[in-house]
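Hey,
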Amino acid sequence: MSDQNAVQEFDEQLGTRGLEGLWFNITEADIVGKEPRTTLMPHIWKWTDLYQSLLRAGDIHGLGGQAERRVLCLVNPGLRDLKMKRQRGTTHTMQMTVQLLKPGELARSHRHNFGAFRFIIKGRGAYTVVEGEKIVMEEGDLILTPPMTWHGHGNDAETLVWIDGLDNILLNSLQVISWEPYPGDFQPIKESFKSTAHWAGMARPVWEKAVGPLAYKWGETYQTLKHLEASDGSPFDGVALEYVNPVDGGHTFPTMSCGIQMLRPGEATQTHRHNSSTVYHAFRGSGVTVIDGKRYEWEKGDCFVVPLWSWHSHQNRSRNEEAILFSMNDRPMLEALKLYREEPGEGA
């Protein structure tokens, strides 16, 4: 018997015993290497496609009873072939979706153990209710739903569109995910408010201990960006802010973080890379992001993903107007595991 046949026969025998041999030709191995590897792919979702699809989802017959919410998931092309739908995220750890809520509609309350946020991109006057507290939604607002908090949405104004960000892809891979409906269609709204829904930032009341709903109003966020406009900013991200969780002063969530950055007129950032993945939404303006040497041109409303360990830089295409990018990333998880890496590009 040849050596190759002997190894094959041995491998088959190991398989019957629930075992595998850890042997491979190191020069051909695709599971180890000096640099991080990923199946994620850079990709851009154009606003025209997103919005038209949302409107179609709002009008199409036959969705009744099949969907709790009118939501479209942004699926990374590198994950589209995975057999299990719940693994097909925007990245391998996070899911970005766009959601539409029409006037007069209610999205029934539920809760889950994965974190979620809403960044409002079109419309005003609708509301979300988190743990009984009503929070009015306006463009540019960021509203957090901490894990295991009851939440639902209502609209008595105009059609509203927002971005959802979730870490459910990560929790699915850990096989610890849970979800449950509210006992009844919609949770009651409290008459008085005492949670963190009305404050956000580094300051918090000393008597507030519980992790409740958090709301970051666009007016305050934008004021901070403009206040820092004359500063040096980040060489890689321009005038960039992280939404800090005021309860513990840490990242937005333990598993993912939200950011907002302003590229000043004509500003071009330096190139760098990191082993966290980032998903962007172009909230204002237009620009181009170069990912591993390829140009991805974006305009207001577009969303795009920068996979982990990809060289990237941003540029504002306008010489007169600012560009603003909202983003989510999985850096907090990597930092907690002491795995985070970042490198500047040449000349940085």
